[in-house]
Amino acid sequence: MTAEDVKQKLKSLASPDVAKSSVRFFKTGPGQYSEGDIFIGIKVPILRTVSREFQLLPLEEIESLLNSPIHEERHLALMILVLQVAKCDAAYRRAAFDFYLENTKFINNWDLVDCSAPQVVGGYLLDKSRKPLFQLSQSKSLWERRIAIVSTQHFIRHDDFADTLAISQRLLKDEEDLIHKAAGWMLREVGVRDQGVLEAFLCQHAAAMPRTMLRYAIEKFPPDKRRAYLDK
């Protein structure tokens, strides 16, 4: 089982029509966040099926896929890694975490981050120091900053909110809309688990939050409460 086997499988499933749609959806034009990314046209449910077929792919072959210029190959590499860390020993989980952070330049779109960071990064750090996330949150890379905040989704699922709140506060002045959306999304997830914690954060920071971040954070609130926050 090799990366080349995977590439041939994906090639057989590619759709030019889906590729055209993906190029528009993922903003691949000049100056856009995904400028120059290459799509061959495979939808996520199909990638998910293929990932199960190749879930025993060795890490060095996953690396070959992740280093690909083709978006779907990178996406599949991360899907396979997620499957592997769900059923592995501590040594492999550490190896997967290290591998992930060594290859962040290839995890360079929001769907790639969102499908993998909570499981691979957040899962590893659950019972460890969160310092790597705070370092990532200060990165010049948009995608590393997104990894920092989205990884905390794993902590939220364990009712551990402190790092989500702290990193969101650090990102209040971030200039990227994709960071505003990610931080707002994670804050919303905190609110789903404990609305009081979210409202305490909003009491301190709502006035300074980018509007997109705020809208995402309060999405689950009743309409009158949403309007009250937006009118502040």
Helices and strands, with pairings:
Elements (H helix, E strand, L loop, with lengths): L2 H11 L2 H10 L18 H10 L5 H8 L4 H15 L4 H13 L7 H5 L2 H9 L5 H6 L5 H9 L2 H4 L5 H9 L6 H17 L1 H11 L5 H7 L5 H8 L2
Walk me through what this model shows:
- The chain folds into two domains: 1-109, Leucine-rich Repeat Variant (Alpha Horseshoe), CATH 1.25.10; 116-232, Leucine-rich Repeat Variant (Alpha Horseshoe), CATH 1.25.10.90.
- 66% of the residues lie in helices and 0% in strands.
- The protein contains 16 helices and no strands.
- It has helices spanning 3-13, 16-25, 44-53, 59-66, 71-85, 90-102, 110-114, 117-125, 131-136, 142-150, 153-156, 162-170, 177-193, 195-205, 211-217, 223-230.
- Helix 3 (44-53) packs across helix 5 (71-85), helix 10 packs parallel to helix 13 (177-193) and helix 13 (177-193) crosses helix 14 (195-205).
- The longest helix is centred in the C-terminal third of the chain and has 17 residues, at 177-193.
- The radius of gyration is 18 Å and the shape is globular.
